[in-house]
Amino acid sequence: MNTANPTAHAFDQAMHLQPLGDDRFSGHTSEAYANMVGPFGGATAAVLLNAVLQHPQRIGEPVSLTVNFAAALQPGPFEIEARPLRSNRSTQHWLLLQYQNSELVSSGTAFTAIRRPSWSEQELACPAVAPADSLPALDARGMLRWISQYDLRFVCGGFDPHSQQPLDNSLTRLWVRDEPPRPLDFLSLAAIGDCFFPRIFTRRQRFVPAGTVSLTHHFHVDSERLAQVGSAHLLGQAQANRGHNNYMDQSAHFWAADGELLLSSSQTVYFKE
To answer: Could you list the residue ranges that cross the membrane (predicted)?
Structure first.
């Protein structure tokens, strides 16, 4: 049974975990983040990361997260094992395993660290686009449940399955934040990092069976900076490099409104056409 606070934000309810001891936690899927098959992948990635964040032995904050989606997570309870594999004074490597009905449904790794002041530089510039408040929010009525949990405002590369007119590239730029607004943290950033529709949808402008197989996030910020961003929109950009023989990649980036790069992400997506 999901014992999350029913008055909490839907995202926080979806992230709720109950410690079981021995590196294990129990959770429950959320209907609010339902996708075509099982939950929205970003929510699954975030709840796996939450097991690390909730672990009493954690050192530092997330630097990277990789999740491999091995099987469809069905509605209902699940368990997560978050085990620290190696630790030193400032870094920690984690193994993540998610089970449902005693079967493995996803696996992953995470790397956490205590960040210290150092030389810093951002080579990837934020694209110059229209501000979020000048663009209409996507009307999510009739769409998958998870889409309505986000305020999505497309700059380019939207998805209109009624047009049936393929695009000549898969580039998408959009503004995104939780709906209703929620202060940004590592968990919500991990989920937002998977907010783009599959690149095959954008390129072909029609639905095809598709799903993420593997996802990797690189976090470029600390919790203090995320708190400064608050509930403001993030600018996201995603594009595929190649689709071939049932698989397509995606490279994505997310910036704060002031142009600071917060997250880089890549994933491999299976599609059937």
So the answer is: none
Q: What is the pLDDT of residues 52-75, one digit of tens each?
A: 999 999 999 999 999 999 999 999
Question: Residue 79 maps to which CATH number?
Answer: 2.40.160.210
3-class state of residue 249 by DSSP: strand
Query: Exposed, middle or buried: residue 272 (CB in 10 Å: 0-12, 13-18, 19+)?
Result: exposed
Residue 254 falls within a domain, yes or no?
yes
Non-local CB neighbours of 142 within 8 Å, separated by 6+ positions: none
- Produce one character per residue of 209-219: b if its CB has 16 or more CB atoms within 10 Å, e if not: ebbbebbbbbb
Q: Is the peptide bond before 180 cis (omega within 30 degrees of 0)?
A: yes
Domain count, the chain: 1
- Residue numbers of the domain that contains 49: 10-115+135-271
Q: Is residue 77 part of a domain?
A: yes
* Structural domain contains residue 121: no
Query: Could you read off the pLDDT of 220-238 as tens digits, one per residue?
Result: 999 999 999 999 999 999 9
124-127 long-range contacts, Cβ below 8 Å, gap at least 24?
A: 124/253, 124/261, 124/264, 125/259, 126/235, 126/255, 126/259, 126/260, 126/261, 127/173, 127/235, 127/237
For the CA atoms of the chain, what is the radius of gyration? 18
Q: Choose among 105, 213, 229: nearest CA to 175.
A: 229
Residue 193: CB partners within 8 Å, gap ≥ 6?
42, 45, 215, 217, 252, 254, 263, 265
Q: What is the pTM of this model?
A: 0.96
